[in-house]
Amino acid sequence: MRLKKISVILPVYNEELFLPHTLANIEEYVDEIIVIDGSDKGASTDKTAEIAQSHPKVKYYSGIFLSDFGGWDTAKQRNDVLKYVTGDVMMLLSADMLLYNMEILKNAVEKDYDLFGVSSIEFWLDTKHIRVHNPKYDLFATPAENYKIIAVNMNCDPSFDINGNIITAQYVEYDRCLYIPQSILFHFGWIRPFKQQVQKHIRHVTMGLWGESGLQLLRLPYEDLEKWAIRHALTYSESRCLNYYGIIPDCDEELLNMRFDKGCNDVLEEYENKYGIKVLDYIHKKENKNAEIHNPG
User: Fold this and answer.
1) pLDDT (tens digit per residue) in 247-294
2) pLDDT tens column, 100-113
3) Cα angle vertex 240, ends 189, 21, to 5°?
4) 141 burial type by CB count under 10 A (0-12 exposed, 13-18 middle, 19+ buried)
5) What topology is assigned to 6-114+148-182 in CATH?
6) Between vectors from CA 220 to CA 215 and to CA 222, what angle results, nearest 5°?
7) pTM over 0.90
8) pLDDT of residue 59
9) Would you kindly state where each structural domain of the chain is located, as residue ranges?
10) Residues 170, 157 contacting (CB under 8 angstroms)
11) DSSP label at 217?
């Protein structure tokens, strides 16, 4: 019997740090990797394209992806390459994600289901903590995104919503979904260096993901939007999280030692030099050597 062909859609922009790890993580188990490189300004300006095109299973495309708000339209970035998918099953990954037990997922998609979900670990602050979503901050809080749909059969006519999630043109019954808990998706996005965290929040506002409050921010001078994004990123350390002691994906020390506040003071100094004003009224160093900023003021 013919095995199902697996296609991966991988949207990227300036991912020279992560992309080699992501490609090495999946290329043995999939048939094609469709890299779509771009932003609201165009393709990557680092070595992303060079890295992607050096892998034989990669099909590389690039473009400019603008939303109605004038910002980066990541849904369009993903949806525009669906026409190039030749596989029976489509997987969506981000370049800041690594999969553990990919072989189990590969075997699972051979089964007669339409949607495939895996366990998900979302690092928060650093690789020693994971985020929790619970407004009461109690001890029974649930880790964020502990289950995530990662693959879909192409006969479901899949596409992507504004948040980058997989959606289908037809309703899929619950009994057509398969959960594979042994396969774990590790998300490093929230522990990227501080400057990237700030850029991400500005991008989300311009994409319209912050609703009316985001529209109000867009009416302000850019320096105020940038200040808001910096302050927002600084609140990470105030959010509740769980200590994490478990499986760590196979990656080098640079990824294992990532933390959200790396380069934070450089961003603050850059802002002050650019606009002549401070983001914070004061900066208080935290005793924990793993954090540069303690209180955003």
Assistant:
1) 888 888 889 999 999 999 999 999 999 999 999 864 444 434 344 433
2) 999 999 999 999 99
3) 20
4) middle
5) Spore Coat Polysaccharide Biosynthesis Protein SpsA; Chain A (3.90.550)
6) 110
7) no
8) 97
9) 6-114+148-182
10) yes
11) H
